[in-house]
C-alpha cells in the first residue's frame, strides 16, 4: 500500500509539473498581434509593387492615421517620424483623400528636421489604396529647385550686366552724332565706344565659355596635356595687358609635367588668373606663375602670385561666385566681367581638381589650382624639383 501511495503521489507531482510548465510557456511566449478585421493587411502583390517604386512611399491607415508602411527615403526626407506623418500639411492631404477618394498632387517644402533651417522640396502624390489605406508618393525636387534658382539668377545677372555696356554704347552713339562738328569730341567719344565694345565682347565671350563648361565634360575626351606649355601660352596671352600696366610676369614650371584634360580650358583658367592678378596689381610690381608637384598626393599645383592690394577676408568665400566683384568700381575701370574666377573654378572641378585662394590686404594674393597629375619626368622623387617656394619666402 505504501508503495502504491508513493507511486500515486509521484504521478500526481509529475502531472502538476507538466501543467505548470505548459502554463508558464504560454505566459512567457510573445503574443503575435492579431490583425484588425476592419483593417486588412497589405497583400503580397501590393507590397512588392511598393518596394519596387523609386519614389519615397508611405502607407497610412484610414482608421487612425497610423503609418503602417514607409520606405527609408520617407524617413530620410523627414516625412515620417515613428509611426506618424510628421507634417500637418501632408496629414491634411491624406485626410482629404481618405474623405472623398480623389487623387491629389502637391508641391511642398518641408523642414529637414526638428531643428535647423534646412528644407527639402517634395512633389507629393496622395491616392487611395483600397478602402482602408492611403498611399503617399514623394519625389525629391530639392536639387531641381536649386538648379532652377541658379539658372534664374544667372539670367537675371546676365541681363543686368549686358544692360550697362549696351546702354553706354547707345548713349555714346547719340553723343557722337550730336558732336559731329567737333572732331576732338568725336575722337574722345569714339574711344569710349571702343572701350565699351571691348567690355561687351569680353562679357559675351565669358558667358559663352561658362555656358559651354556647364555642358561639356572635360574628362570625357581627355588628352595628355603638358602643363608647362599651358603656362607658357597663358603667359603669352596675358603679357600684353601686363606690359601696358608696367607689370612683369615671371614664369617657373616643372618641365614635362602632364595632366589629363582639355588644353584650351586649362589655358583659359590660368590666363584668367593672370589677368586678374595684373588687373589688381600696381604698376612696377611683379606677378609670378609656377608649378609644384606633390608626388605623395598625386597632384600638381599651379600657383599665381601677385603683389597687389589683397582681398579682405570677408570677401574671399564669395570670390568664385558668378558676377561677384570685390570692388565693382575698379572692375569697371579694368574691364572685369565678374565671371573669370567662376570659370577657373569650373575648369578645375571638371578636371578633378580644385582652386583655393590665400590673401591679406596689403600683402597680395595667391591663387592655387590643384590637378591630378598623370606623369612626372623621372622615376626617382629626387628628380622632381619644386619650383615654387613656401608662402613666407614668396612674401
Describe this structure in words.
With 395 residues, the protein is an alpha+beta fold. It folds into three domains: 44-140, PAS domain (Beta-Lactamase, 2-Layer Sandwich); 142-215, Orthogonal Bundle (Helix Hairpins), CATH 1.10.287.130; 219-394, 2-Layer Sandwich (Heat Shock Protein 90), CATH 3.30.565.10. The protein contains eleven helices and 14 strands. The protein has helices at 2-28, 44-52, 72-76, 88-100, 142-178, 183-215, 227-244, 263-279, 328-334, 340-350, 391-394, and strands at residues 56-61, 67-70, 80-81, 84-85, 104-111, 119-129, 133-140, 223-226, 248-252, 258-261, 286-294, 299-306, 354-360, 364-372. The chain has a five-stranded antiparallel sheet with strand order 2-1-7-6-5, sandwiched between helices. It has a five-stranded mixed sheet with strand order 9-11-12-14-13, with helices on one face. Strands 3-4 form a two-stranded antiparallel sheet. Strand 6 (119-129) and strand 7 (133-140) form a beta hairpin. Helix 5 (142-178) packs antiparallel against helix 6. It starts with a helix and ends with a helix. The relative contact order is 0.08. Residues 18-24, 26-39 and 379-395 have low confidence and may be disordered.
Amino acid at each position: 500500500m505504501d508503495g502504491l501511495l508513493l507511486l500515486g503521489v509521484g504521478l500526481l507531482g509529475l502531472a502538476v509539473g507538466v501543467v505548470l510548465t505548459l502554463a508558464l510557456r504560454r505566459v512567457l511566449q510573445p503574443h503575435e498581434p492579431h490583425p484588425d478585421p476592419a483593417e486588412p493587411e497589405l497583400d503580397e502583390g501590393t507590397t512588392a509593387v511598393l518596394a519596387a517604386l523609386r519614389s519615397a512611399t508611405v502607407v497610412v491607415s484610414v482608421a487612425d492615421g497610423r503609418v503602417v508602411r514607409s520606405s527609408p527615403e520617407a524617413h530620410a526626407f523627414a516625412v515620417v517620424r515613428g509611426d506618424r506623418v510628421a507634417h500637418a500639411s501632408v496629414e491634411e492631404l491624406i485626410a482629404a483623400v481618405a474623405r472623398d477618394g480623389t487623387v491629389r498632387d502637391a508641391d511642398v517644402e518641408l523642414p529637414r528636421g526638428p531643428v535647423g533651417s534646412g528644407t527639402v522640396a517634395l512633389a507629393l502624390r496622395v491616392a487611395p489604396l483600397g478602402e482602408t489605406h492611403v498611399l503617399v508618393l514623394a519625389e525629391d525636387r530639392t536639387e531641381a529647385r536649386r538648379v532652377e534658382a541658379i539658372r534664374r539668377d544667372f539670367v537675371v545677372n546676365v541681363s543686368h550686366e549686358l544692360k550697362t555696356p549696351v546702354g553706354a554704347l547707345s548713349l555714346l552713339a547719340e553723343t557722337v552724332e550730336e558732336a559731329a562738328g567737333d572732331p576732338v569730341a568725336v575722337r574722345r567719344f569714339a574711344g569710349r565706344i571702343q572701350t565699351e565694345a571691348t567690355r561687351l565682347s569680353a562679357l559675351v565671350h565669358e558667358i559663352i565659355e561658362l555656358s559651354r563648361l556647364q555642358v561639356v565634360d572635360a574628362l570625357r575626351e581627355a588628352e595628355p596635356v603638358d602643363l608647362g606649355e599651358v603656362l607658357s601660352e597663358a603667359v603669352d596671352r596675358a603679357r600684353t595687358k601686363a606690359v601696358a600696366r608696367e607689370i612683369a610676369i615671371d614664369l617657373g614650371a616643372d618641365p614635362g609635367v602632364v595632366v589629363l584634360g582639355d588644353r584650351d580650358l586649362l589655358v583659359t583658367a590660368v590666363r584668367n588668373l593672370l589677368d586678374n592678378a595684373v588687373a589688381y596689381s600696381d604698376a612696377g610690381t611683379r606677378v609670378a606663375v609656377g608649378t609644384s608637384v606633390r608626388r605623395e598626393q598625386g597632384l600638381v599645383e599651379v600657383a599665381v602670385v601677385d603683389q597687389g592690394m589683397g582681398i579682405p577676408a570677408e570677401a574671399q568665400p564669395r570670390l568664385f561666385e558668378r558676377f561677384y566683384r570685390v570692388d565693382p568700381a575698379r572692375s569697371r575701370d579694368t574691364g572685369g566681367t565678374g565671371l573669370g574666377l567662376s570659370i577657373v573654378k569650373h575648369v578645375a572641378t571638371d578636371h578633378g581638381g580644385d582652386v583655393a585662394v590665400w590673401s591679406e590686404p596689403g600683402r597680395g594674393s595667391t591663387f592655387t589650382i590643384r590637378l591630378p597629375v598623370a606623369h612626372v619626368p623621372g622615376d626617382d622623387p629626387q628628380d622632381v624639383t619644386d619650383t615654387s617656394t613656401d608662402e613666407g619666402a614668396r612674401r
